[in-house]
Structure to design on (584 residues):
């Protein structure tokens, strides 16, 4: 069995779907341009010590990549709905290989989103040492792991009709309280809530530019905890879904 | 999972085929009603057989197929596919199937790419070009899967089922959405595949399909097997062939009111011919339903040597089916156990 070939065809399909590609990559980019271009000379956004161009570059990268990961769930829901998943279950393709293909495809979309935003960021004057670009990218990719599991979970929990509003709603809400649009308050309930969310740590990736450890133990623990919990839930949802709909 | 040699008596005989033993499956339907979809069925299919799973909607055909393929776990009973658990047979790439749900294919691939992608999942697939040829979709090989008609989609799904070169091919109502020409092509391809010694199981409610393309029919109704045998045998069981003929003018005249009661071609008299179980008359045309059409035709010709336009047809599974299932008023809902 050749699961690598399967992943290759998944990638081919995803990048051939122009409408999906344009909206997934274009929407965060357009927002970034609207917000950051007029404010590109603001060097310390909200007293964070981070330039507005960098802050929103990473903020929108977190938004775009969360969307990319969760929308892989929409593809799973769609394949369940049309019966394609059942067709795959009578092939030697293991569920593990199927999910790996979905997650890798989502990651490829996420990387494409990061690349377009970073390229635009550089164009409007974001300048960082190479090591910090790499560190931010790696933190974003690691921080997306809970969202890969969330995509699979939602793909098995929801149907095609509820998938759009659910993913849009969840990602928008997470982005709002996690500091995608403006920095999270330094104290209080919202601060504590944000610290417990994996999306907060995605946005925090921009803190590499102001030195020190950008995540710290709390960040790693929160990301790891959500990854484990959501993966377990995704496994349960997948098993429960064995019945014919 | 490799089950130890806790031998089922005839396991050796069925090692290469399919063995369904005491399969039972219930679902919780709307309003908490338990629907007993399949009620303890036993079916053995030998390697190389082409078997039709025949029955009306709701007979339990699709549920049986789901259990056979390991997509649904039976409440009780056991499935052996080619001597293995269904999951193991599927993982070994021995099974190809066209399922009833999911008329749609994944989008953004060409037909050739989709079939190739599926081929890569198997250890020893057939040549993709050959499969496209066999299933009659070579001419649409470069078309995107989202731009196909219903009939074309079905043929692509057939190609997907065949490309692994499976030992067992399972088809759940495969010709839905195909036009007459498409159906003909489909069954020709299926026969060509079966002729290579493959086992084929197909579910259908097109009775003529079972009659024409299967060696054997397993009739299901209300979750049970109500008959199982060669299609010819099943027809013989309920037994009827029909003779249609046009009688000579003199015989027709004989039943006109003026000719008195002596008319030897009245429906009543025709029904008394040996081998005939019922008779109808429409002018000069007569229709005889026969338990034994060989005897009946001899008797008819002896009595009416001038009879012409003679046509003998078998009843078809439709009638056999009504005969066999019509009396079964046991509801598929939870009730007193049958066995």
């Amino acid at each position: 069995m050749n699961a690598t070939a399967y992943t290759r065809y998944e990638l081919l399909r995803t990048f051939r779907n122009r409408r999906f590609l344009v909206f997934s990559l274009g929407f965060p980019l357009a927002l970034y341009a609207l917000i950051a271009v007029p404010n590109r000379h603001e060097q310390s956004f909200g007293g964070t010590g981070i330039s507005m161009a960098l802050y929103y570059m990473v903020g929108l990268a977190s938004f775009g990549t969360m969307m990319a990961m969760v929308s892989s769930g929409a593809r799973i829901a769609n394949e369940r709905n049309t019966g394609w998943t059942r067709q795959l279950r009578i092939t030697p393709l293991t569920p593990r290989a199927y999910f790996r293909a979905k997650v890798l495809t989502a990651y490829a979309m996420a990387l494409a989103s990061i690349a377009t935003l970073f390229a635009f960021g550089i164009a409007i004057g974001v300048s960082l040492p190479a090591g910090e670009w790499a560190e931010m990218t790696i933190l974003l990719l690691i921080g997306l792991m809970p969202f890969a599991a969330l995509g699979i979970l939602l793909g098995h929990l929801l149907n095609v009709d509820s998938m759009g509003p659910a993913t849009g709603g969840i990602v928008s809400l997470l982005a709002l309280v996690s500091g995608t649009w403006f920095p999270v308050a330094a104290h209080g309930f919202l601060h504590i809530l944000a610290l417990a969310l994996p999306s907060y740590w995605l946005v925090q990736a921009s803190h590499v530019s102001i030195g020190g450890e950008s995540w710290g133990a709390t960040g790693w623990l929160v990301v790891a905890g959500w990854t484990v919990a959501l993966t377990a839930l995704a496994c349960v949802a997948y098993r429960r879904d064995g019945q014919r709909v | 999972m490799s089950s130890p040699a806790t031998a089922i008596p005839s396991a050796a005989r069925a090692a290469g085929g399919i063995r369904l033993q005491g399969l039972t499956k219930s679902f919780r339907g709307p309003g908490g009603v338990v629907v007993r979809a399949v009620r303890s069925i036993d079916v053995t299919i030998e390697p190389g057989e082409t078997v039709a799973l025949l029955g009306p909607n709701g007979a339990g055909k699709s549920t049986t197929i789901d259990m056979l393929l390991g997509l649904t776990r039976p409440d009780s009973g056991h499935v052996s596919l080619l001597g293995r658990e269904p999951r193991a047979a599927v993982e070994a790439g021995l099974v190809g199937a066209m399922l009833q749900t999911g008329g749609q294919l994944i989008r953004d691939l060409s037909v050739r790419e989709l079939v190739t992608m599926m081929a890569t999942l198997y250890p020893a697939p057939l040549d993709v070009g050959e499969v496209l040829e066999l299933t009659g979709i070579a001419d649409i090989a470069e078309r995107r899967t989202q731009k196909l008609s219903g009939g074309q989609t079905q043929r692509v799904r057939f190609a997907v089922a065949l490309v692994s070169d499976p030992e067992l091919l399972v088809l759940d109502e495969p010709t839905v959405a195909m036009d007459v020409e498409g159906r003909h092509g489909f069954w020709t391809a299926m026969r060509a595949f079966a002729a290579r010694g493959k086992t084929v199981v197909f579910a259908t409610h097109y009775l003529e399909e079972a009659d024409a393309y299967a060696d054997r029919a397993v009739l299901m109704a209300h979750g049970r097997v109500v008959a199982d045998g060669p299609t010819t045998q099943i027809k013989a069981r309920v037994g009827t062939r029909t003779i249609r003929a046009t009688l000579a003018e003199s015989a027709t005249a004989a039943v006109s009111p003026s000719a008195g009661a002596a008319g030897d071609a009245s429906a009543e008299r025709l029904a008394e011919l040996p081998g005939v179980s019922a008779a109808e008359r429409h002018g000069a045309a007569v229709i005889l339903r026969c338990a034994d059409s060989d005897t009946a035709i001899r008797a008819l010709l002896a009595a009416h040597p001038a009879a012409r336009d003679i046509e003998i047809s078998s009843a078809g599974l439709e009638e056999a089916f009504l005969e066999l299932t019509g009396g079964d008023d046991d509801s598929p809902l939870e009730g007193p156990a049958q066995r």
